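Lecture 7 notes: from sequence to structure.

We start with a single chain of 248 residues. Read the sequence below before looking at the structure.
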Amino acid sequence: MTIRVAVAGATGRMGQLALRLIEEADDLELHAGLSSASSLDELDGADVVLDLTHPSASESIVRHAVGAGIPVVVGTSGWSAERIARLEAFRREAGTESGVLVIPNFSIGSVLGTAVAAIAARFFDSIEIVEAHHAGKVDSPSGTAVRTAEVIADARGDRPVDAPHADQRARGQLVAGIPVHSLRLHGVVAEQRVILGGDGETLTITHSTVAQSSYEAGILLAVRRAPSAEGVTVGLDALLDLGLPGRP
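Now the structure, written as tokens:
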């Protein structure tokens, strides 16, 4: 069976990567490649919509696809728990059965780094996240860092992280009670460090993305799984069966 994919954000870096992957895959076919000037009606008739756009445009694209009954893979940052809750409410109102996969990071290594951090988080009370991306990334903190913080919080249950002086701006933004620090630099693709402190020791879990090729396996997995997805699923880990908490 061939899956017809509509790519929203086809002119961007990730969009261009997705177009190449679709062209090279025997089981995928490009239904449409949309730019910011395209009509959302071009999504209609696709088997899957792959959203790789901008946080300000993403929600309307996803709502259009969901309203048309088309499964969606969301690779755009900025999908907070509040926005996801709105999407879930919209799906219920629309009465659609098409699923939505919200993927903060398509990198397998990044997902594994978050999984390891969630395991370690049960044993340390001081935890902070430092994430770095290229200078052109428009949002902060990154969707990956938000997802990591929320998974860590779920793993700890009712035990809050010790985050002193959180009211000071230089202490980062609190996400699920965990300080997150964002760097935007030329020469960087993406990197995340989860730093955990304990009595007489620290543990740092680092994942570095050095090329966009690290996203290829995750993009293909998500697109191929989207037609059978149910409800709203957050994180590539759900497709890898790593046993991480599922809270968005």
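The chain is about 30% helix and 25% strand. Keep this in mind for problem set 3.
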